Amino acid sequence: MLQIVSYTIARDLRLALRRPADLVSVLFFFIIVASLFPLGVGPEADLLRQLAPGVLWVGALLATMLSLPRLFADDHRDGTLEQLALSPNPLGLMVLGKVIAHWLVSGLPLALLAPVLGLQFDLPADALWVLTFSILLGTPALSGIGAIGAGLTLGLRGGGVLLSLLVLPLYIPVLIFGAGAVDATVSGLGPGAHLSLLAALTIGGVAFAPWAAAAALKIALE
Amino acid sequence: MLQIVSYTIARDLRLALRRPADLVSVLFFFIIVASLFPLGVGPEADLLRQLAPGVLWVGALLATMLSLPRLFADDHRDGTLEQLALSPNPLGLMVLGKVIAHWLVSGLPLALLAPVLGLQFDLPADALWVLTFSILLGTPALSGIGAIGAGLTLGLRGGGVLLSLLVLPLYIPVLIFGAGAVDATVSGLGPGAHLSLLAALTIGGVAFAPWAAAAALKIALE
Amino acid sequence: MLEAENLECIRGERRLFHGVGFRLEAGELLFLQGRNGAGKTSLLRMLCGLSLPESGEIRWKGEPIRKLSDDFRSDLCYLGHLNAIKEELTPLENLLSSARLAGETLSDDDALDALEQVGLLGREDLACRYLSQGQKRRVALARLVPERRPLWILDEPFVALDVNAVAWLAGLIGAHLQRGGLAVMTTHQPVDIPAGQIRELRLGA
Amino acid sequence: MLEAENLECIRGERRLFHGVGFRLEAGELLFLQGRNGAGKTSLLRMLCGLSLPESGEIRWKGEPIRKLSDDFRSDLCYLGHLNAIKEELTPLENLLSSARLAGETLSDDDALDALEQVGLLGREDLACRYLSQGQKRRVALARLVPERRPLWILDEPFVALDVNAVAWLAGLIGAHLQRGGLAVMTTHQPVDIPAGQIRELRLGA
Amino acid sequence: MSMINWFKFSAPSTFYPLAGRLIPVFWALFAILALAGLWVGFFVAPTDFQQGEGYRIIFIHVGASWMSMFTYLVMAFWAGMGLAFNTRLSGMMASALAPTGALFAFISLWTGALWGKPMWGAWWVWDARLTSELILLFLYIGFIALTHAIDDTRRADKAGAILALVGVVNVPIIYFSVKWWNTLHQGASVSLTKAPAMASIMLWGMLLCALAMWMYSLAVALMRVRVIILERERHTDWVKELLAKRSQ
Ligand code: HEM
Ligand SMILES: Nc1ncnc2c1ncn2[C@@H]1O[C@H](COP(=O)(O)OP(=O)(O)OP(=O)(O)O)[C@@H](O)[C@H]1O
Ligand SMILES: Nc1ncnc2c1ncn2[C@@H]1O[C@H](COP(=O)(O)OP(=O)(O)OP(=O)(O)O)[C@@H](O)[C@H]1O
Ligand SMILES: [Mg+2]
Ligand SMILES: [Mg+2]
């Protein structure tokens, strides 16, 4: 059981490393989005500091979302997904492996980059820590929920945009608690409550989403 | 000459209409992004009104960008692009047709939707008009510049994210003048200067970009 | 071992076939025939359990495959129109990885041996993206070399192969049958499999 | 009419072929042979002008094709591994649209006639997504029926076709040659084209 | 230089040894100019009565900004040459220049930000020059990312060339942004037509530093291009010979 999960992770990581440009691009997308908002909104430092948690969280969320279509699409197009579905291993476990690998190449690096961008917005140090931690804690849920959406929209033309449509509403709670945690820190309330809700979302997402995604994939293959 | 452009437009529009979900999804993405920000940032009305031009423009820009990978990818995958490149018509003209069709199913509906979302943010009437007009005027440039990026990243795995990386920086001027026009209206300065710069960008983008994109496509096919 | 009874397939408003049934024992090959669009691919996907028949039943060792699921899948090897190889990985990596994901283990030596048999030695370290159409198909077929699961379902395996490769693959299927394996296959090309009992089933005749 | 001289093709670090040359006149068929990966597809793409040879030159009616560009392309019809059909459109729409984009006009009747010839009448209004592999290939081949441009370049046109369709296509190519057309073709299947002068070129022998 | 010469040196095999001979020269010039520039900048130039010691950042900032723009122009030039004449060396030159350009764009932004804090009270403002310089950095990064994402070097060069040529409009925007828009950023104070508006000792320091950066860029780009040549031409006879000779 564990073996097949870890093997799927290893395989997906290897594929991701064959194209380091992908990983780098997710990060740059994050950087660019985080820099676009100040452009659209104007340069006042106070305003920007107020915006920072929201903008950074939305950026992380969009960056994760953009990398979702690739989660299954490649495997679908070249027939690998059929083979996975026909393998004697439970498909849910393989999806779990793919979700974890996806997080390792998207959520994790985003979390590590977030504090650097937060500095640009002049966030105080404790808020930076909470920002990093909240993204670290919240992004697995994004990958998990995203997998369901990616499974449901698999093989549909324009699936990418349809995928956003399905997934974004489900991302909203993560966004609210994530940005909320940082806001709460800035305003001195302490992020505890928000962070534990975030943890609950992630545990739910990672434990349950792969099975829903596997069911969606089976339907997509029919 | 004109015939081939109009025929390409007709063909792409027909393909888009076969999948109305695509068109609807671009719009919903726009709506969702415009609604996410207030969620991430908090509900103060004054703050939101200040944010509105930036947020709406960024939303329109991201929605356009997300639909870019499909511009050539389908044609590439099924071999149509090779056939287009081998047709005796200049490839640039066919790309021009595709750019226009792309604008008709992304930029145009976004512009029509923008004032409705603007109302949500409590923008004054004249600002709403300028918002609509600026999006109408700016999005052709987005489609044109986007076509270059889509051509350059065609066929690369993870091209979608690389595409954003290439295209977003070039979108920044459009964003600045677009959001600037609305801002200027709100602050009573008048949007004239911004709008004429936007028009210049669009004329440049639409006239010149298809040829650069066609050159990129020929390279991608090699 | 593999039985199908009274299968019916409907696509859109069109009934592709109905009343299709057969019985295949160890060492036998079922050769599925029919013109383009007759429903061969649709039938093969049903036999794998990837799609459900409108009516009728498929049994493996006497049990309906719906009930067996995992057990059936560990007896089955399917090769479809698509190659199921990763363009970024090399032939060697592809082979190892598909074995692992199918729940088997394959030593490097065995994998290299399989690649040698399909004539890809010397290209085992080149990303599959660079291979020609026929070479990609060969990578997909290399999976069959160490394959010991009893039921092979092959959808037009000879497509894009050159003459030598066609002969080699026919031999490989023959050997599988002689080991007591079963195979269901479609192809539009005339080939002869050098062993085993061959049954034919013609769809949409 | 079509001449190639001393062509060389390098992929990665491998020289696929060099010193390849031929001369093809009206009514002649060049039959390109070679094992999988010999470089047939690469050569055909060069002949179309889609990729550049490392060295050597290709001439059409005496002029290098690089210089002709538009003129050459309006004499050329290429059919590759990929079908170049849109899954969302019906066979009829696909046919009309590819004619228009290639700068030609095709009446609805002619298009329906072409579809009848490839045996797709009755499916002309079904989105291509639902067609079988062979039927998709037939949609792509229907383009050749009204095609009057002199030079046809066909990369494994017979793949996925059933026996009847193979015979029909061979006849169609024969008719093209008899009208004074030229064709360059690869295939791994044995087929005989019922007319014209056939030349063979073997790559990587 | 005659036409024949030009084409002779555009062959990687002749360019390689030439570059090898030039590199030490450029390094030496760099060392001399950098020492002189820094000496003038930090010890000779007086403290500014308005800006205090902080203004000394100018010695790096201005040179780096110039270099970032100029390098882009050179890169785009090579890219265009590559597209037009299909010469192998052009693409190699463009790829060799990009990282240096990106570095200088980054330094310009970084020093600008450091300077902005005391001068304008903010690390960053969304002003036309600053924004367009940021776009320049992204263009460099985009160029590098794009060319690395394509394995076939010929294709990578051409695709990168298109991007470089499209982005070239940005350079005049950076340069003239202070004229065209009302910006916080300082206008041009060095020009060929007017007398310079700053103290001549400062000007000298700045020019020396800028020249040093020139030499550095040349040396580093040539070193990088040599590595690229070896990598791309590793199958040609002359490289094999060279490597064989070297490993003896
Ligand atoms: C991140 C912020 C900044 C960026 C991206 C930036 C960019 C540039 C660029 C591209 C140039 C060269 C253009 C030209 O020569 O016309 C330049 C020159 C210059 N910058 Fe900045 N700058 C920044 C911040 C600052 C600050 C804060 C100051 C000081 C108040 C400053 C003062 C100057 C001066 C004095 C020049 C030389 C102008 C001349 O002599 O032509 N810059 N900067
Ligand atoms: N929605 C639909 N409406 C009508 N017919 C449909 C629909 N979906 C599929 N079909 C038909 O179902 C058939 C699918 O056939 P299948 O792919 O199984 O054929 P095949 O025998 O494998 O053919 P080939 O030899 O070309 O591979 C085709 O004839 C197709 O036209
Ligand atoms: N980067 C590379 N390095 C080494 N070899 C390469 C590279 N890219 C392509 N090749 C080789 O080039 C050849 C491409 O062949 P091509 O597709 O033209 O073959 P083909 O004759 O059409 O074969 P098929 O009959 O299988 O269609 C293959 O042998 C492939 O392995
Ligand atoms: Mg089939
Ligand atoms: Mg081929």
What do you see in this structure?
The complex is a heteropentamer, with two copies of chain A (222 residues), two copies of chain C (205 residues) and one copy of chain E (248 residues). With 222 residues, chain A is an all-alpha fold. Chain A has one domain (2-221). In chain A, 86% of the residues lie in helices and 0% in strands. Chain A contains ten helices and no strands. Chain A is elongated, with a radius of gyration of 18 Å. The mean pLDDT of chain A is 86. Chain C is an alpha/beta fold and 205 residues long. Chain C folds into two domains: 1-75 and 149-205, P-loop containing nucleotide triphosphate hydrolases (Rossmann fold), CATH 3.40.50; 90-148. Chain C is 31% helix and 27% strand. The radius of gyration of chain C is 17 Å and the shape is globular. The model of chain C has no long low-confidence stretch (mean pLDDT 90). The longest helix of chain E is centred in the N-terminal third of the chain and has 33 residues, at 12-44. Chain E has one domain (23-42, 55-232). Chain E is mainly alpha-helical. Chains A and B meet through helix 2, helix 3 and helix 9 of A and helix 2, helix 3 and helix 9 of B. The complex binds protoporphyrin IX containing FE (HEM), adenosine-5'-triphosphate (2 copies) and magnesium ion (2 copies). Protoporphyrin IX containing FE (HEM) binds at residues 58, 61-62, 65-66, 108-109, 112-113, 115-116, 119, 129-130, 133, 174-175, 185-186, 188-190 of chain E.
